[in-house]
From TrEMBL:
Annotated organism of origin: Haemophilus haemolyticus
Protein name: ATPase AAA-type core domain-containing protein
GO molecular function: ATP binding; ATP hydrolysis activity
Lineage, uppermost ranks: Bacteria, Pseudomonadati, Pseudomonadota, Gammaproteobacteria, Pasteurellales
Gene3D superfamilies (UniProt xref): P-loop containing nucleotide triphosphate hydrolases
Protein origin, superkingdom: Bacteria
Ranges for domain ATPase AAA-type core: 6-50
InterPro entries (alphabetical): ATPase_AAA_core, Bact_Antivir_Def_Nuclease, P-loop_NTPase
Pfam families tied to this protein: AAA_21 (PF13304)
Family matches, as SUPFAM superfamilies: P-loop containing nucleoside triphosphate hydrolases
Signal peptide: none
Length: 158
């Protein structure tokens, strides 16, 4: 059978024309189906990169090739936004205005200014925009709750 024959297969831009769910599964399916085949694949898609362990990954830049085992972060199972940021040096948010508002809100939270009029207004606008689907806002909420808890402990001790 041909799928047991040793081979090397080169595929450029593996993700092209594949549904995102298939992109997540394509490498494992190829490896299971063609056990004696070595694949050399190229991609720019986080869905593919996150399905590869670092030892099987090489990052090719304009002037160097970096083995994945030398990267400071793991790719296998990583969030796509992290891959965009860490591997491709791209901020995963395309709208600069929203990004700036989110960064400003997070700054205000970290500076204990989360009760300010500006912070409250930004929070409402961001919640409306993201419709409850933004991990940074949830993280900020937990930070605020923790700060309030610490504040109550301090006040009880006074």
């Amino acid at each position: 059978m041909f799928w047991y024959t040793p081979a090397i297969v080169i595929i450029d831009e593996l993700e092209l024309h594949l549904h995102p769910q298939w992109q997540e599964e394509v490498i494992s399916r190829l490896e299971r189906t063609f056990k004696n085949t070595k694949f050399i694949l190229t991609t720019h898609t986080p869905t593919i990169v996150s399905s590869i362990i670092n030892e099987n990954l090489y990052l090719i830049t304009d002037n160097q090739i970096i083995a994945g085992k030398h990267l400071d972060f793991g790719t296998y199972g990583a969030e796509y936004a992290s891959i965009y940021t860490l591997l491709y040096n791209i901020n995963s948010r395309s709208d600069n205005e929203i990004k700036e508002k989110l960064e400003r809100y997070l700054y205000l939270v970290n500076e204990n200014q989360y009760t300010s009029e500006e912070a409250i207004m930004l929070r409402k606008e961001l919640e409306k925009n993201f419709k409850g689907n933004e991990p940074s806002l949830e993280e900020a909420k937990l930070i605020i709750e923790n700060k309030e808890w610490e504040k109550s402990l301090y006040e009880e001790g006074q």
